[in-house]
Amino acid sequence: MPPASNREAILDAYERLLVEQGERAATVEAVARAAGVSKGGLLYHFASKDELADAAIERLHRVAAECAEEATAQPDGVIEVFLRDAVKTGDPLDLALGAVQALQQSGRYPQAKPALDAVVQGWVDMLTEGLGDPVLARLVAVLGDGLYFGAAFSGGGAGIATPPASEQELDEMIAAVQQLAALRGARG
Amino acid sequence: MPPASNREAILDAYERLLVEQGERAATVEAVARAAGVSKGGLLYHFASKDELADAAIERLHRVAAECAEEATAQPDGVIEVFLRDAVKTGDPLDLALGAVQALQQSGRYPQAKPALDAVVQGWVDMLTEGLGDPVLARLVAVLGDGLYFGAAFSGGGAGIATPPASEQELDEMIAAVQQLAALRGARG
DNA sequence: GTCTATATAGCGATAGAC
DNA sequence: GTCTATCGCTATATAGAC
Fold it and tell me: Which domain covers residue A111, as residue numbers?
């Protein structure tokens, strides 16, 4: 990496604040404090709050692309890879995704929705292609959403959704879906 | 209904603003304008913004209880009833749920999370009891979450999640899950 | 490149007229 | 029961010193 100085650290702090406390808490001053710089220091790197948001969206695109590359390279079936990734919390993709989602829900950043849609569309395409069964693909995609929101929201975080499945519960659920996949003669 | 005057109208407007534009947009002034009263008029009925939030949470509890009663009285299987309800948008429960969820994600209302948890716990209990298969019950619950967020977020609304299933896609998905239920010998 | 100080605007809440 | 006017606070953003 080139210098990058505090820029990346500020973005990290911004993402964390967005995910953990929502857009409203992610004030310029709060982000600066969390990143260990002053308000003025932050505003040198990001001239406005909107530029912070744009940078978070840009990072989401980058991280999602990296993860998609890794995922398709894996030996396990698509169902297992996708559902396990859905509950993975704390990794860069989860953070970037949660951050942009917080932006979206604040209603102040119209740029957020298209970005989220693009990321999700990539997953749906991957599943449809990998399974060869559109209905099953959608079922797995929706199940992944449910797991994601369950995992994302029940932590210190926000919202509704059933608690995140334990390791064992997740295993059982994956097994059940694979049971269904076998029954329907899908790949996967 | 007794007088109720503008109180209910204000609550309606508050819920709609929360769901459609997030907590940040639901300022006292904006809510008052949307309800067709002035700021002072609103603050007569709800002495503070927190009282507005409390009233929304109270309404959620009331509406959720009503819906639970209706749901258990229905002849169809739990799977079908639950998954179809998950995508129903615009009804009072959906609105109340989305509103409290917006409150929760803003991070300013600690009262929101327990309320949401209670509502969700009611659903999980209903499914576990109705199906007699804990793994399948969790799978259906998580699937419902996925559908709910898909439906709730892809409209004018907020967030991630795959687009809401069309009528036909939903039918196919329900059929697939019932296929799995039959395979596992669960009640329907 | 990072800081302090400050201008400006918006929001929540109060006071008091009607 | 509903309105207008206004105070106090907080947040964004700018200006300019170091």
Answer: 53-184
Nearest to residue B181, comparing CAs of A188, A182, A181, A176? A176
Find and give the residue nearest to D16, measured CA to C1'.
A40
**Nucleotide D5: closest residue by CA–C1':** B40
Residue A129 forms part of a structural domain: yes
Domain total for chain A? 1
For the whole model, what pTM was predicted?
A: 0.88
pLDDT tens series, chain B, 188 aa: 444 679 999 999 999 999 888 888 899 999 999 999 999 999 999 999 999 999 999 999 999 999 999 998 988 899 999 999 999 988 999 999 999 998 988 888 999 999 999 999 899 899 999 999 999 999 999 999 999 988 776 654 445 667 666 889 999 999 999 999 999 998 86
- With helix as H, strand as E and coil as C, how does B33-61 read? HHHCCCHHHHHHHCCCHHHHHHHHHHHHH
Q: Does residue A125 lie within any of the structural domains?
A: yes
Exposed, middle or buried by CB within 10 Å (0-12, 13-18, 19+), for A114?
A: exposed
- Tell which strand D nucleotides have any atom below 7 Å from a protein Cβ: 1-5, 10-16
A15 contact partners, CB below 8 Å, separation of at least 6: A56, A59, A95, A96, A98, A99
Q: Tell me, yes or no, whether B116 lies in a domain.
A: yes
Asked if residue B74 belongs to a domain, the reply is yes
Token couple for B24: 């940040």
